[in-house]
Q: What sequence folds into this?
């Protein structure tokens, strides 16, 4: 299979597959569409597995490279390739799409074909974002991605979906505009859009700052970082379960990926100048957002805020790298970035699972208000066990994936500053405060009302996707080495590149 | 051989927990308890086997990496085992008590619908605790540390319908997390200095700690040894419930009694003491940290004991007693008498598990009534419980020749000789604590087993001794509570090749046990010396006083209570810790959260920054209907201009 354009297949199979499903919108065709979508997502997942097997952990070079001319006038190429940073995110994308297909099986009865098509196209586009090595191609995928998400929230969303979609659209669109400006400047300097050629540019310090801020707005909105995070809780609340899963598990990671791929390696001096600023924003995300999460009354909002707090560790790990390098501690710099990557992947599994759990409750009760629940564990014991597991993972319990990234980032932060580590470690207190207090109010206690009393435990279908998530959450916690091995060479090379630029 | 045995010890309870946890409802009750009991029995047998191997041919340490958990920045983080005499002692205690509690549970939980779930939890707890004590590195230690915390959380909230239980378990988890916050930072400090998380490498170069300093914030530096050790000890304060992180342990009595015995008396709460002993090479580097431990330990030992005197719930009395005894263990390790601390940990594990299980037996007989004011005269109905509880009470009070006497007396004698600052205070607290211990212990004993029966007639007519699954563990725990101190004091503490010595590191100038050992002439002499000490007469006096107050002249306690009502109130309110915590941390967190959310996010960010004015927020919904009519474009343009302005201003502030 060496000669197969595997990345292109991964991108276009779901997109074309999704388009082909679109016209099948008769009632009698619903099941065919569901099975078709599941089939496509499973094939893509299998192919991503092949990708992993064939991936060479020992090199930091781009692999599975494909290049074709695209827009000659702009010297832009259809150029694909992945390294150890992109691969785990692609695997996560493929996994989550399968989850979403199973999760939307019965819940979605309206415009079934369009629903599944949107998610499949979303998947292809996201894989495109992660594997594009040409800046313009990256930008196109990045922008196009907004459309299916916009539709998912706008069509299958909650009552206040119009407000949420506009907020979502404006935020992310505005962010992208600034990124485009930055990309055009880089293109003018280097003569093409190849991201790797951006790495070798010698950009003056003050320009670096401007470019950095251009990228920052795009990526910070996606992650999202404080103070541009307020679109996320609204978007989640209105999005259908599947939309929330993709939003939390994959789309937020695009920001972290952008920092790793663009901001820091292209603009190391600016990253150093603004490092303390970025670290401060990250720590605000951990603490301030943690407090905000405690008082949320809506389950989805609570998990959305918890996502923001967890993503604080991602930006913290990434932006500590350069100050740590200046400090002469490569080890801690690498550890921080590895922690950030692991945190992204782990958060993908955990937040997906948490939103799926909320979906399970919402499908039965049609409410997400914490106050409407109480004593659910009495009537849904199997579900309660899953919920407890994912809650504990959200709390960062060792033995679950949630621990690994935070552990590595905190170990690394201690080298830079005791205070940074102490503020970051505040998550040890805040995460159980918001997560377990929520679990207490929703799951424990006497059965709160008749609606709760009438709840049925999870079906086989629901057990399937929860079990799949649980296996990864526990597996990565007990043995994160395969994930670390995947990204090791790339991240070490990434840090080495910075070291040469910084010195 | 050791490798296989240790793998079996760890995996057997895990396999039991997983199989019962997943299939418990399918398999029904008897298989659930048989599987878990067998798995823990296998662990216990293998632990004893390792003890046998060690006794036959002592080895310094057996270390084995089981697998590489993860490798970050070229540094492997492992999962492995580290077996030395300290580990072996802990393994034997943990598996033995766990086995007793498993058997006992058959009787205690026989009516409970969550029977299988309970067995799965306690088997998983046993696995976690073994991971904790057998770990060869800090990451795995932290895993075990948190995993026992989670099982504790699950078990305190086992009866999750009870509001008090689910309040108590959340409180326990969060207070423990305060400790873990320090513990994790302590681990980060260790990693910073040693560049490794493995015990072997860290302990081998422990002196590196004393040369480093840590900058807390600009301008404030402290010795790295002190910082790292105090941070690690904060972890121990959470898990071992030391003041001011003790508040969770009394509330944890909401859980079923078997786990009060196993987790909240014998094993998990002693993890902090074990950890400090394990880290003795590090703690010896900082006298300041040892002083800190002595002060905290002394305070806990005395003042928590005092609270125990005014409690009326049988389990809460024992819980406060546990706090106080944990304080004693901390005093021991703070005085560098690590072996004495671990010795007290062992004897305490037996007699405190015995007391809890005995209390549980009483609670079964009383139909889940825990208020001692409604008991009395039970000795007539439950002779086995009565006698075993008497043994436990005498051991706890430190009356020779019961186990507690030897361990507690060694601690008191050791801290007396210690020259570490704070030892004087700890010595005073420990001696005064002996009187307090005897008072609360025998107040409980007399109120429950003697005095006039105060229960209603219906309960009284049903009073009977508990079934054999309950009494057999009591007897099996009473035996070590009776003899283990006399037998082990020599080999554990004072023999030429004392059992624990190879595992512990003590600076020569701190080695109070060695000094004490010069005057040690065997357990018999140690016992006979007792009547010549103040401590002995304090204990006897305490018991006599309780006999006088509760049996001879039973009206007096009420008069004392009324006469000293302020002191009584302070003790009943537990010095106000709970009131303060609920107000400051409970309400405070929600207050900060609400302000951050409603003012920070909604008013400032959404209101002012994003939409230009708070007014626009309300209008977005209206604006949205212009979407189709093309107004969106204009809106976007306006937003872009506004944000560009904002960004430029922002940049100006940051760059210019």
A:
């Amino acid at each position: 299979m060496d000669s197969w354009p595997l990345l292109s297949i991964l991108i276009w199979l779901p997109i074309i597959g999704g388009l082909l499903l679109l016209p099948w919108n008769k009632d009698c065709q619903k099941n065919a569409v569901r099975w078709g979508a599941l089939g496509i997502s499973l094939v893509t997942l299998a192919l991503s597995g092949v990708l992993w097997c064939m991936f060479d952990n020992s090199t930091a070079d781009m692999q599975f490279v494909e290049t074709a001319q695209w827009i000659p006038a702009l010297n832009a190429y259809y150029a694909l390739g992945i390294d150890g940073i992109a691969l785990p995110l692609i695997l996560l994308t493929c996994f989550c799409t399968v989850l979403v297909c199973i999760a939307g099986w019965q819940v979605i009865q309206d415009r079934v074909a369009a629903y599944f098509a949107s998610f499949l196209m979303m998947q292809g586009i996201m894989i495109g974002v992660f594997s594009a090595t040409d800046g313009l191609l990256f930008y196109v995928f990045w922008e196009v991605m907004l459309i299916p998400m916009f539709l998912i929230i706008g069509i299958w969303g909650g009552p206040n979906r119009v407000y949420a979609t506009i907020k979502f659209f404006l935020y992310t669109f505005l962010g992208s505009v600034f990124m485009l400006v930055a990309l055009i400047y880089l293109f003018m300097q280097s003569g093409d859009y190849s991201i790797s050629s951006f790495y070798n540019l010698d950009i003056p310090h003050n320009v670096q700052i401007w470019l950095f801020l251009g990228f920052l707005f795009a990526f910070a909105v996606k992650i999202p970082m404080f103070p541009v995070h307020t679109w996320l809780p609204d978007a989640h609340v209105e999005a259908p379960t599947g939309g929330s899963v993709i939003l939390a598990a994959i789309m937020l990671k695009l920001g972290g990926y952008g920092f790793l791929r663009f901001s820091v390696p292209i603009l190391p001096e600016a990253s150093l100048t603004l490092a303390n600023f970025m670290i401060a924003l990250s720590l605000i995300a951990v603490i301030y957002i943690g407090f905000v999460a405690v008082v949320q009354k809506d389950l989805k909002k609570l998990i959305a805020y918890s996502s923001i707090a967890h993503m604080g560790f991602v930006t913290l790990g990434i932006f500590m790298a350069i100050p740590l390098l200046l400090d002469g501690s490569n080890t801690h710099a690498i550890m921080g970035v590895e922690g950030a990557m692991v945190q992204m992947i782990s958060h993908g599994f955990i937040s997906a699972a948490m939103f799926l759990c909320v979906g399970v409750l919402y499908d039965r009760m049609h409410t997400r208000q914490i106050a409407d629940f109480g004593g659910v564990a009495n009537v849904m014991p199997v579900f309660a066990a899953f919920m407890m597991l994912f809650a504990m993972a959200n709390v960062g319990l060792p033995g679950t994936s949630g621990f690994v990234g935070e552990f590595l980032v905190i170990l690394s932060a201690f080298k830079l500053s005791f205070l940074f580590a102490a503020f970051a470690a505040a998550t040890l207190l805040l995460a159980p405060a918001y997560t377990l207090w929520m679990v207490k109010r929703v799951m424990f206690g006497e059965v709160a009302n008749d609606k709760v009393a009438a709840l049925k435990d999870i079906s086989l279908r629901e057990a399937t996707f929860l079990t799949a998530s649980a296996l990864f959450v526990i597996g990565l916690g007990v043995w994160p080495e395969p994930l670390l091995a995947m990204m090791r060479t790339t991240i070490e090379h990434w840090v080495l590149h910075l070291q040469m630029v910084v010195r | 051989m050791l490798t296989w045995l240790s793998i079996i010890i760890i995996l057997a309870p895990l396999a039991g927990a997983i199989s019962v946890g997943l299939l418990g409802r399918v398999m029904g009750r008897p298989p659930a308890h048989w599987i878990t009991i067998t798995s823990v029995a296998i662990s216990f047998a293998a632990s004893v086997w390792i003890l046998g191997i060690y006794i036959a041919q002592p080895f310094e340490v057996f270390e084995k990496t089981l697998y590489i958990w993860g490798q970050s920045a070229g540094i492997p983080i492992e999962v492995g085992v580290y077996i030395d005499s300290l580990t072996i002692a802990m393994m034997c205690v943990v598996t033995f008590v766990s086995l007793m509690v498993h058997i006992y549970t058959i009787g205690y939980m026989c009516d409970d619908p969550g029977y299988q779930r309970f067995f799965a939890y306690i088997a998983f707890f046993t696995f976690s605790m073994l991971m904790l004590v057998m770990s060869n590195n800090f990451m795995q230690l932290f895993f075990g540390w948190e995993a026992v915390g989670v099982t504790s959380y699950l078990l305190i909230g086992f009866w999750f319908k009870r509001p008090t239980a689910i309040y108590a378990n959340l409180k326990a988890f969060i207070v423990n997390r305060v400790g873990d916050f320090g513990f994790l930072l302590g681990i980060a400090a260790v990693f910073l200095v040693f560049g490794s998380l493995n015990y072997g490498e860290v302990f081998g170069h422990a002196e590196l700690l004393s040369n480093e300093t840590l900058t807390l914030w600009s301008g404030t530096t402290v010795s790295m040894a002190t910082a790292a050790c105090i941070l690690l000890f904060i972890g121990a304060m959470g898990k071992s419930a030391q003041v001011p992180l003790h508040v969770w342990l009394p509330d944890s009595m909401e859980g079923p009694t078997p786990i009060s015995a196993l987790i909240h008396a014998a094993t998990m709460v002693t993890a902090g003491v074990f950890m400090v002993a394990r880290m003795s090479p590090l703690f010896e580097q900082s006298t300041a940290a040892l002083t800190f431990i002595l002060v905290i330990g002394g305070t806990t030992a005395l003042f928590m004991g005092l609270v125990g005197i005014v409690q009326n719930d049988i389990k809460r009395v024992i819980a406060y007693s546990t706090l106080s005894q944990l304080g004693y263990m901390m005093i021991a390790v703070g005085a560098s008498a690590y072996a004495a601390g671990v010795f007290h940990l062992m004897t305490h594990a037996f007699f405190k598990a015995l007391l809890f299980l005995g209390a549980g037996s009483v609670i079964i007989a009383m139909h889940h009534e825990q208020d001692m004011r409604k008991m009395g005269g039970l000795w007539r109905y439950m002779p086995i419980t009565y006698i075993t509880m008497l043994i436990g009470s005498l051991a706890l009070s430190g009356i020779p020749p019961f186990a507690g006497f030897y361990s507690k007396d060694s601690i008191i004698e050791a801290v007396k000789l210690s020259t570490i600052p704070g030892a004087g205070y700890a010595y005073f607290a420990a001696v005064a604590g002996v009187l307090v211990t005897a008072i609360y212990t025998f107040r409980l004993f007399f109120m429950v087993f003697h005095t006039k029966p105060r229960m209603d007639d219906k309960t009284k007519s049903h009073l009977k001794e508990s079934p054999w699954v309950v009494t057999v563990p009591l007897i099996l725990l009473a035996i070590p509570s009776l003899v283990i101190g006399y037998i082990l004091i020599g080999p554990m503490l004072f023999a030429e090749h004392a059992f624990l010595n190879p595992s512990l590191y003590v600076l020569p100038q701190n080695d109070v046990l060695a000094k004490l050992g010069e005057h040690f002439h065997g357990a018999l002499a140690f016992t006979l010396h007792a009547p010549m000490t103040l401590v002995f007469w304090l204990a006897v006096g305490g018991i006599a006083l309780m006999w006088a107050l509760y049996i001879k002249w039973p009206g007096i306690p009420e008069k004392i209570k009324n006469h000293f009502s302020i002191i009584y109130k302070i003790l009943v309110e537990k010095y106000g810790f709970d009131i303060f915590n609920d107000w400051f941390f409970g309400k405070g967190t929600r207050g900060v959260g609400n302000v951050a959310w409603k003012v920070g996010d909604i008013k400032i960010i959404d209101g002012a920054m994003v939409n230009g004015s708070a007014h626009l927020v309300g209008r977005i919904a209206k604006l949205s209907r212009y979407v189709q009519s093309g107004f969106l474009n204009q809106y976007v343009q306006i937003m872009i201009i506004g944000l560009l302005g904002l960004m430029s201003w922002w940049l100006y502030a940051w760059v210019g």
